[in-house]
Amino acid sequence: METRSKDGTWPSKQPRAVSSTSKEDENFQGQPGICGLTNLGNTCFMNSALQCLSNVPQLTEYFLKNRYLEELNFCNPLGMKGEIAEAYADLVKQAWSGHHRSIVPNVFKTKVGHFASQFLGYQQHDSQELLSFLLDGLHEDLNRVKKKEYVELCDAAGRPDHEVAQEAWQNHKRRNDSVIVDTFHGLFKSTLVCPDCGNVSVTFDPFCYLSVPLPVSHKRVMEVFFVSMDPRRKPEQHRLVVPKKGKISDLCVALAKHTGVSPERMMVADVFSHRFYKIYQLEESLSSILDRDDIFIYEVSGRSSISENTREDVVLPIYLRERTPARDYNNSYYGLMLFGHPLLVSVPRDRLSWDALYHILLYRLSRYVTRPSSDDEDDGDEKDMEGKNSIPKPGNMAGGSSHNPGPEQAGPSSGVAGGSRAPVNNSPGPSHWPQRARRKHLFTLQTVNSNGTSDRSNFNEDTHGVSFSSQPYIAIDWEPEMKKRYYDEVEAEGYVKHDCVGYVLKKAPVRLQECIELFTTVETLEKENPWYCPSCKQHQLATKKLDLWTLPETLIIHLKRFSYTKFSREKLDTLVEFPIRDLDFSEFVIKPQNESAPELYKYDLIAVSNHYGGLRDGHYTTFACNKDSGQWHYFDDSSVSPVSENQIESKAAYVLFYQRQDVARRLQSKPQPGSSDPPAPPTCESLPKSESMDVN
């Protein structure tokens, strides 16, 4: 035999290892409702939703006075055999017993996971999604309608709105009648207009909460690094404002205003792990670039192209690599490690020889690479080199060519700095371009693939010069000793911040009323969700407008902070200004109003579910006003602290709970058990500053 505890719970439902009560709590007596919920592992979303719902006065009174026992619906096929309602009732009774500082909601968590598999385990979830499931589950478990009858939905067909609305609400109540409907359900008016025949369809639909959109900015801020062709200038960090649905060319235009460099002389690349993850074309969409990507914009010559053979200059992607002797297997890429930032370098086609490229790159790296002294390197005239070491024609590559490498000449891809013979290979390619012998080269050059690893011969030579069968990549290979001696790593990593980086771009706050206005504006249906017009007999992209007809006693407003599209996902951290008291809906309700009862359209805030963090991770907390004391508290899992009203409004506000003023007055006027006189009505007042906590 088992005896139910004083707080309404069953001892067998509380596992010994994680009992919801402790010896310390047995003699504890605190304010009812000021009770934390233990985080079972990523269950802060559930705790936040439960604390909000627990502070809805009429719903909590319904469970505390055991009125739910008479209305449990065990045979509803859409319900959960009354188990969700019983588990929630046990939780409310514990929280409002005043005997616990915090409780462990493990039984409730198990029940939720049993009936909603998406909440199984301990993954992160959305508090609004849990709230939606819980409200629906409680409604079906407490539905007073034991056998639902079939109700046919009827269109307005030209009838007056009040007649159609009354019929829709009566039909809804014929199938759905519970404390959840009494407390949270309102009525929409939905108007659809066919764009072809002009047919108008008007229906009235019930709702349990409002999911209102936030005004979305059509601009985005992007941080990029600009790399000038002038080797003396360090890379510059810029913060640019561009259209959210813009193209790569818009990014270049925005940067041109800061640098004075023409957009036609810019190339945009995503740099990741010392290599080019992607080199963008001007017509590509900016939506493919994430905020965490490292975007570099390189200045190139105005006659450059990375792919067109008709341009006078070609742009070569340049990687930096260092040899690792411990794993150097015959100069293969296994013994080479990428380092530093890659470059995009414009090279004239008539100077495409290894020796010319060596001097061009030495010039581009001159800010952080020291040139050898005359004792280290033979003097060489770059102009003389241009004439003698141009790229050989295909016909000259045959045997007997006067340009064949001699004993003192070695191609850079051989990995030999000088004094060794290049490998014998009769096929044309960059590995066998002639190069002047030098006693001291700082680095050697190598053709590689886009990953900067394996050799790749992608140069084709004809009588007109050089063409590329695919994108050429060049690696600058350093010996460890040479790199240590001539390469300044600190200077190479240096950059400067443009003045624009110091500007703080503040997002203007929006009023809650603006979000509601946006919710009630006309919109056109998307292609994925067309409307079947009964007049045209085909699916149409109709215009749709939602209006508020009647509002519930407790209004739940869900701010749609999480934005999901085909191309991007983001969380909107816009500050939404919402009133603590006197939220007036009279301008949004289109049903003819009772002017003698303005409190029917005014609401006071009673709870807020907050979300801190981003898309991948975050934390949920709750602000709630205690129905007995009228004081605001901050619920952070098992921790509960008093707060002042001026701390409630923040960028983290996610789900708002509002109580209609006439309902609040009705509840406050009811005498408490054991009291001869009605108590003074509590109001949600702020505490003195010394008694409140600061919420970060």
Helix content: 10-25%
Any guess at the CATH architecture of the domain at 36-150 and 551-668? Alpha-Beta Complex
Distance between the ends: 49 Å
- Please give the radius of gyration in angstroms: 36 Å
Outline: elongated
Number of helices: 15
Biggest sheet statistics: 8 strands, mixed
Low-confidence stretches: 15-24, 377-439, 458-469, 673-681, 685-696
CATH superfamily of the domain at 36-150 and 551-668: Cysteine proteinases
Secondary-structure class:
alpha+beta
CATH fold call of the domain at 36-150 and 551-668: Cathepsin B, Chain A
Oligomeric organization of the protein chains: single chain
Give the SSE map:
Layout: H1 23-26, E1 36-37, H2 44-54, H3 57-64, H4 83-95, E2 102-103, H5 106-115, H6 127-141, H7 161-175, H8 179-184, E3 186-193, E4 200-207, E5 210-213, E6 219-227, E7 236-243, H9 248-259, E8 266-272, E9 275-279, E10 295-299, E11 304-305, E12 313-323, E13 336-338, E14 343-348, H10 354-364, H11 382-388, E15 443-448, E16 459-462, E17 465-468, E18 473-478, H12 480-486, H13 489-492, E19 496-497, E20 510-511, H14 512-519, E21 523-524, E22 531-533, E23 538-540, E24 543-550, E25 554-560, E26 562-564, E27 569-571, E28 576-577, E29 583-584, E30 602-613, E31 618-625, E32 632-636, E33 639-642, E34 653-660, H15 661-669
Parallel strand pairs: 1-2, 5-25, 6-10, 7-19, 11-12, 12-18, 20-28
Antiparallel strand pairs: 3-4, 3-24, 6-7, 8-9, 8-10, 12-13, 12-14, 15-18, 16-17, 21-24, 22-23, 25-34, 26-27, 29-30, 30-31, 30-34, 31-32, 32-33
Helix pairs in contact: 2-6, 4-5, 4-6
